[in-house]
């Protein structure tokens, strides 16, 4: 069935900025330089300035950003890394790519991000084997990153922020990505800042970590074709960087529109007893990568909306610790009750900067008419 209102639309975002993007692509193609040239270097400077950090390094994807950040932090076999199970599997895949061991903690049911109390308990349980924490800023809502940093410093642990869904989000008016020892972003096409293909970035205020990442992303080369250390090929290409430079100029405006749409959903759906709406912490600037509601009748609601041509998605239907590749072999200090409950109830409604007012009203009307 063709959906008249999709859950997200990278095509609509391209069309909204088509003239600027096409001009940037033409400029880049005609330059004759396609890998690690002026577009990437300039985007890295612009993105770092936007976040308020000193270094940004473009890489091939968000997953590779996490992997290389962990390696730059010298996380490897025998080390444990604390994160959450309610996340894209990329977070955990990157930990295992380093040979490290993921250790899961439960989430705060209000924000779907790391439960700080459970984090403290878990550090106590595995003291000595934990080397790093990866808090995930999920759906555009920051984790309690200031508290997490204080806890990490008290236990001499590294913090690697997973900002794949939080471009422009902030905690206490400070942008995420600027708190941790190092932070990682994805530019997958549906992200708030999305390329037209894969891409990612690693950001940090630590010059030493930045140097290691730059070596790691291109075979460990300081001198071309001579590897000083073992690295990989993970480079943001010139065309994607040119596109991202255009979209970065519009990111704050697009995020403000996402917030406006979320506020409209909140106001219109506040009286729906069968739907739980998202809530933002007072300290958070939520940029609504996803607008996520909860309902015990989720599948019935999804079917109802799809029959009306309205797209929805579930981010994420199976917690990582219950997926076939990981079930039974990931360390759980405490049961992940909130994680597992959320996975049964969450639903992402249509929300993207090109969603028209009449379209969101259609979505609202069909949710209001729905009964379990």
Structural class: alpha/beta
The tally of beta strands, per DSSP, is 15
Largest sheet: 8 strands, mixed
Number of helices in the DSSP assignment: 12
The share of residues in helices is: 40-55%
Shape: globular
Features:
three-stranded antiparallel beta sheet; 372 residues; 12 helices; single chain; eight-stranded mixed beta sheet; alpha/beta; 40% helix
Question: How would you summarize this macromolecular structure in one to three sentences?
Answer:
The chain is α/β, with parallel strands linked by helices.
Task: Explain this structure.
- With about 375 residues, the protein is α/β, with parallel strands linked by helices.
- It is built from 12 helices and 15 strands.
- An 8-stranded mixed β-sheet has the order 1-9-8-5-4-2-3-14, sandwiched between helices.
- The two termini are about 25 Å apart.
Give the SSE layout.
Layout: H1 10-16, H2 18-31, H3 38-51, E1 55-59, H4 62-72, E2 80-84, H5 90-97, E3 101-105, H6 116-125, E4 130-133, H7 145-154, E5 158-162, E6 170-171, E7 174-175, E8 182-186, E9 200-204, H8 207-217, E10 221-223, E11 226-227, H9 238-269, E12 284-285, E13 291-294, H10 298-307, E14 331-332, H11 337-345, E15 346-349, H12 357-369
Parallel strand pairs: 2-3, 2-4, 3-14, 4-5, 5-8
Antiparallel strand pairs: 1-9, 6-7, 6-12, 8-9, 10-11, 13-15
């Amino acid at each position: 069935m063709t959906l008249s209102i999709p859950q997200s639309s990278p095509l609509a975002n391209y069309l909204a900025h088509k003239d600027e993007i096409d001009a940037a692509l033409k400029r880049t193609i005609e330059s004759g330089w396609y890998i690690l040239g002026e577009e990437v270097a300039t985007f890295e400077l612009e993105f770092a300035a936007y976040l308020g950090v000193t270094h940004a390094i473009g890489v091939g994807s968000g997953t590779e950003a996490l992997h290389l950040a962990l390696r730059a932090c010298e996380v490897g076999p025998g080390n444990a890394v604390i994160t959450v199970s309610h996340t894209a599997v990329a977070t955990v895949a990157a930990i295992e790519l380093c040979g490290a061991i993921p250790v899961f903690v439960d989430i705060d049911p209000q924000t779907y991000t790391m439960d700080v109390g459970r984090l403290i308990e878990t550090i106590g349980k595995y003291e000595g084997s934990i080397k790093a924490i990866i808090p995930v800023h999920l759906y555009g809502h920051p984790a309690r990153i200031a508290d997490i940093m204080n806890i990490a410093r008290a236990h001499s642990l590294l913090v690697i922020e997973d900002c794949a869904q939080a471009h422009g989000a902030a905690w206490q008016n400070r942008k995420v990505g600027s708190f941790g020892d190092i932070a990682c972003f994805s530019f997958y096409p549906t992200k708030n800042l999305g390329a037209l293909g894969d891409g990612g970035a690693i950001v940090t205020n630590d010059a030493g970590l930045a140097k290691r990442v730059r070596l790691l992303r291109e075979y460990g080369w300081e001198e071309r074709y001579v590897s000083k250390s073992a690295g990989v090929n993970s480079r943001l290409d010139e065309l994607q960087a040119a596109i991202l430079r255009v979209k970065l100029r519009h990111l704050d405006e697009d995020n403000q529109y996402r917030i406006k749409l979320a506020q409209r959903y909140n106001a219109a759906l506040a009286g729906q007893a069968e739907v739980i709406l998202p809530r933002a912490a007072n300290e958070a600037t939520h940029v609504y990568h996803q607008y996520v509601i909860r309902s015990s009748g989720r599948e019935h609601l999804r079917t109802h909306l799809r029959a009306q041509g309205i797209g929805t998605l579930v981010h994420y239907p199976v917690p990582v610790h219950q997926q076939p590749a990981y079930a039974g072999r990931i360390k759980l200090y405490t049961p992940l009750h909130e994680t597992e409950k959320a996975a049964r109830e969450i639903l992402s409604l249509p929300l993207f900067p090109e969603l028209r007012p009449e379209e969101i009203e259609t979505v609202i009307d069909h949710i209001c008419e729905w009964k379990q």
